[in-house]
Amino acid sequence: MSTQTPVSPLELISEHACFGGVQRFYRHQSTAIGLPMRFSVFLPPQAKEGNVPALFYLAGLTCSEETFMTKGGAQRVAAQQGLMLIAPDTSPRGANVPGEADSWDFGIGAGFYVDATEAPWRQHYRMYSYILELHGLIVENFAVDAANIGITGHSMGGHGALVLALRNPDLFKSVSAFAPICAPSHCPWGVKAFSGYLGGDQSTWSQYDASALMAELSAPFPNGILIDQGLSDKFLPDQLFPQAFDAACEKAQQPLELRQHAGYDHGYYFISTFIEDHLRFHHRQLNGAAR
User: Fold this and answer.
1) In the prediction, which pLDDT does 202 show?
2) Which of 23, 56, 125, 269 could join 151 via S-S bond, C-beta 3.0 to 4.6 A?
């Protein structure tokens, strides 16, 4: 059990002027995780005058709350649109679970946005509940329009964004993703994570599988979902399976714009190229588009 000293509800670590707004990094004691967690927030200049819509960004394997804010190139357009950006960490830190640092795709930096049910992970590795906790924390402490919050993410975080949105459409009004892990129950990354965190009973995995969830729904986001995928992504053939999500959307009569881009890979050069499109997509849906 961790013996780390609890911190105040919101501890400001640093802040930086950015495109007329402010980029901030915070630390707080998480109820869901049972440990201190970090997250980042970009407050656009419009937040000085009143509540603004917001977009959660869930990062991928090995990333942290800093990755998107330093590499994504999103703040300029977010400042123009008056869109708050929130980026959480990707796993607990300091849980001291044996083996949590042994591999890059499981454990530290690889929480997979699930609530673990298997020992020894279940005590702290509860990233699904943490995102919901952070949603409430943002609404309570920042100038955000609680009725107009969207979610996006990349790779493991794209998987998380799709799952969080599909299971919580009352909290997330819009959803998009970059190269998401669309069918984690059927790819090596997902099978490894789900086996470790959730156990061998595969019937429990579907609650965290976006393609399985979508196949049981009926057009949960009628204004559409946006996914961008690079065709030079080395993980596309064996890990991502966007075609499975596309088929599930067709079954659910869910509008999906699946854009495939020749020459683009899995990294932040790809994300930074198309981030403006995603911000404008969310801005449209969070500013008056009917649900």
Assistant:
1) 96
2) 56
Q: What is the pTM of this model?
A: 0.95
**For residues 88 and 25, what is the distance between their CA atoms, to the nearest angstrom?**
10
The side-by-side arrangement of strands in the sheet containing 21-29 is 11-18, 21-29, 36-43, 84-88, 52-58, 144-153, 174-178, 225-230, 256-261
Q: With contact defined as beta carbons under 8 Å apart, do 230 and 179 qualify?
A: yes
Query: What is the mean pLDDT for each group of 10 consecutive residues in the chain (291 residues)?
Result: 50 98 98 98 97 98 98 98 98 97 98 98 98 98 98 98 98 98 98 98 97 98 98 98 98 98 98 98 82 36
Beta-carbon count within 10 A of 101 CB: 12
Active-site position among 266, 278, 282, 283: 266
91 noted as active-site residue: no
Tokens 């943490």 identify what position? 130
Told to judge if 155 belongs to the known catalytic residues of this protein, a careful annotator would answer yes
**Catalytic residue among 115, 209, 228, 233, which?**
233
